[in-house]
Amino acid sequence: MNAKHIDILAKKFRAWKSRRTMKRGFDRRGSALILTLVLTLSLASLATSAIYLGANDQMLALTYDQERNMRYAAEAVLAMGKSTLNFDPLAAPSTGDTTVLDNAAIIDANGKPLPGLTASMYIGPTSSNTGQFGRFVSVVAVVKNQTGAQVVRRLELAQESFAKFAYWSNQETLPPPNNSSIVFANNDQLWGPVWSNDVITIDNSGARFHGTVGTAKTISGVGYGTFDFGYSQRQAPITLPTNTNLAALPGYASAAGFNIAAPNSSSIDQAMMRIEFVARPYNGGAGGLAGLPINGADDGFFRVYVSKSTPGWLRGDSSLTNCGAYYVFATTGTALGSATRPAFVPMSENTMPWFKAALQQNPGKYNSSTITNLTKASALVATTLKQSTARCFLGGDPNLRAVSYHADVTSGYKTDSTNAASGNSAKIFAAMQNIAGDSTTFYPAKTTNPMGYWKAYTGTVAPGVAALWPTEAPYLFPIYRGLNPGTKGIIYVSGTTGLSGTLRGRVTVYATGSVAVLRDIKYVTDPSLNNCTADMLGVIAGNDIMVADNALQDPLNVGGTYENMDDTKDVFIQGVMMALHYAFGAENYTSGPTNANGCEGTANGRGCLYLAGGIIQKNRGPVGLTDGHGFTKRYSYDKCALYNPPPYFPTTGRYTDNRYYEIDPNGFDVAALYRSLTPGP
């Protein structure tokens, strides 16, 4: 191959290479364009997604913000409703509901309306408005936005009961004419909430408060006090109710046959009527069920005794007709008068022929010298009340059957006395059984009896009650609704009454006069067990509540020594006491012995006054002195009175939170809500 051929081939190769280069360059430029387009479209998609997501997130944030604002606005409206009720307790109607706000603007903390939101507020009762089980009022808030979406909230409020206080006073001074201030001192221990509209004074000997303490004024000596839950001063006063505020209670009592007129409205030393709570093991009828334990709601009753004699007979003051002793008249058997069932004889019967004849039937126990002293008027008191079985009882008590039986001057009594004097042992024992008594020998007495009588229950006596206690049944007032459909837990007394006994059930006693605590007032269920569905007592007196100075609660001077005439030297009160006009205290607390008894190691005159519940009073009342006169206080708090107060017990007018609800807004109807929450009549 010559040079010419080589040159031609070289030119062809260069031409081919040039075409290859041009073709490859053209391919790269096309790929870049496609890639650019793909990247551009991807970035555009991402940008669009970001814009969309950002807008959606902003919309969600706005939605959440608005929902939060609506929720907070509803809670603000509820707070406004609570404030309205605490400022004006009558803002809630008796039935139905009232509209306080109607699609109104909601003002924020800066005084500006919340944009796009309106609120409605409704207030109305959401329980039985009678107050039997407490009074509850609900505030309903409805908040709407511009789109029509809404939130609905309900706050149920409980009207605060006076029963929540362990101690409450309007004035920290003695009643007129004394008017001197009383202080907390000597390391007083107070359990539960304490309140006064007056200055609370604490002595330098100190006091400890285990609950909250509040006053409308100030605390003097605050440094001497120990406050486990703090204290507050210069608070809004709390007003005691008046008889006018309680005007509905007599009607509630009448429905049950519990509206009772007392003979007078005098002070407790002139009390001529008493109410005694009794618990009977009623469990559905006869057939030996009386021996069952007292544990049912249907076991609660009370009796009413009306005195026609001097007040001292009813009160259990020291007298021949109230005091006596138990005796054994037979050496064998289990009947009344036997060793297993001693018979009580009041001293007024000791000089009667039947009593001496009955004692002579048991010469092994009563020798001639003893019989002479027990039946001789000059030695009667000193001999009788020195016996270990000596006791005093309130007028009408079954143990005092002999007094009522004798006072009726029946032919039966005369016959029994004649039989006892005959010398026939069988007739003597029969006479004793007809005249003497014990806790089971209930004797109603005639209404013409000069001493007094038990008042008959005007309602229908349940057959089962009549079968179990045929003599006593007509005089037992049933507390349980199953035996007395009209009962609402209110006993109303027009006038002054005494009070004692063992309570089964939930009752408020309201007396327009004064109330005398004549003997222990206890629950069947020990309040320390905190069984808040069991027993609860409220006592409201238009005047004062006083622990009576009688033979059962103040030791008697018998031949130079002091003797206690009740089952214990101490007095027990379980319940919430409210004295509207004066105070809760002890009668004649400055008199009597100073060291006849003691209270948990400290000598005093009358022993311990154990109170489990609360004291609400206009003036602070004393029960003893530091020199030993009167009682020593031993008060404890029954928290069940806070959670489940006595029926219809007065309220302070202040409302506290009870329950909070979120309500489905779909198809919400406020009128229908209140109807569903308020029971029918």
Question: How does this model look, in words?
Answer:
This protein is of the alpha/beta class. Among the domains are: 1-149 and 665-681, no CATH class; 164-232, no CATH class; 322-441, no CATH class. Helices cover 24% and strands 29% of the residues. The strands form 8 sheets. Strands 5, 7, 10, 13, 14, 22, 24, 26, 30, 34 and 35 form an 11-stranded parallel sheet that branches. Strands 15, 16, 20, 21, 23, 25, 27 and 31 form an 8-stranded mixed sheet that branches.
Q: Which percent band covers the strand fraction? A: 25-35%
Structural class: alpha/beta
Sketch the major β-sheet: 11 strands, parallel
Low-confidence stretches: 21-26, 284-292
CA-CA gap between termini: 132 Å
Tally the beta strands: 36
What is the residue-mean pLDDT, rounded to a whole number?
86
| Total helical segments | 12
Shape, per Cα inertia axes: elongated
The radius of gyration is: 41 Å
Helix content: 10-25%
Question: Can you tag this structure with a few keywords?
Answer:
681 residues, alpha/beta, 11-stranded parallel β-sheet, 8-stranded mixed β-sheet, 24% helix
